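Technical annex, item 7. During the second reporting period the consortium partners agreed on a shared format for inverse folding records so that results from different sites could be compared directly. Each record opens with the tokenized structure and is followed by the designed sequence. A conforming record, contributed by the partner at site C, is shown below for reference.
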């Protein structure tokens, strides 16, 4: 569901609730995050964990995008705000009213945003579940690097509810969330 084969919806829900209740440190130190939520294929500690922990800065706009997705997954508001450019940054982010469970990130394309650029854009699709429905966020995010650090500037987003239910999904079709499970045993249950 988040670009890895080993996590199912029950585990994602448990992770979400643990993050919501303030157990973020326990979560990220456990082996539950053997796969980074950004879908890179690396462990959380090898990937976005180094950025969230302040050990390193993302070298590209795509790396920052991936780390921000993982921060949304873990409800890490401090990281999100610190990587948001001051000219467009909100004063705060509150996850206590949020019930979105972020599931999978798919990078569609990147334009510029390399180590040597000062700006770039990342087009991505982020899949999530909210209010018992499956949703897709399709966004083009703009990033800038005024000095040696990349920042999220803004984005043009489009959200749409994914129309998959018993009427539109074939009985044994794979779930659209990317879990690898059949729809009837995943988001369709």
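Designed sequence (site C submission):
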């Amino acid at each position: 569901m988040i670009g890895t084969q080993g996590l199912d919806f029950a585990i994602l829900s448990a992770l979400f609730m643990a993050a919501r209740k303030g157990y973020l440190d326990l979560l990220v130190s456990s082996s539950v995050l053997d796969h980074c939520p950004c879908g890179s294929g690396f462990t959380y500690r090898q990937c976005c964990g180094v950025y969230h922990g302040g050990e390193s800065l993302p070298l590209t706009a795509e790396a920052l995008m991936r780390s921000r997705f993982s921060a949304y997954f873990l409800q890490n508001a401090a990281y999100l705000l610190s990587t948001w450019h001051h000219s467009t940054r909100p004063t705060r982010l509150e996850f206590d009213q949020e019930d979105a469970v972020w599931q999978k990130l798919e990078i569609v394309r990147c334009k510029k945003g390399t180590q040597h650029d000062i700006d770039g854009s990342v087009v991505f699709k982020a899949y999530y579940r909210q209010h018992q429905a499956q949703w897709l966020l399709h966004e083009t995010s703009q990033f800038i690097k005024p000095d040696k650090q990349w920042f999220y500037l803004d984005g043009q987003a489009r959200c749409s509810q994914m129309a998959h239910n018993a009427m539109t999904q074939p009985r044994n079709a794979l779930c659209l969330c990317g879990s690898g499970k059949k729809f009837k045993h995943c988001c369709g249950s």
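Residues 1-10 have pLDDT under 50 and may be disordered. The longest strand covers residues 101-112. All partners now use this format for quarterly exchanges.
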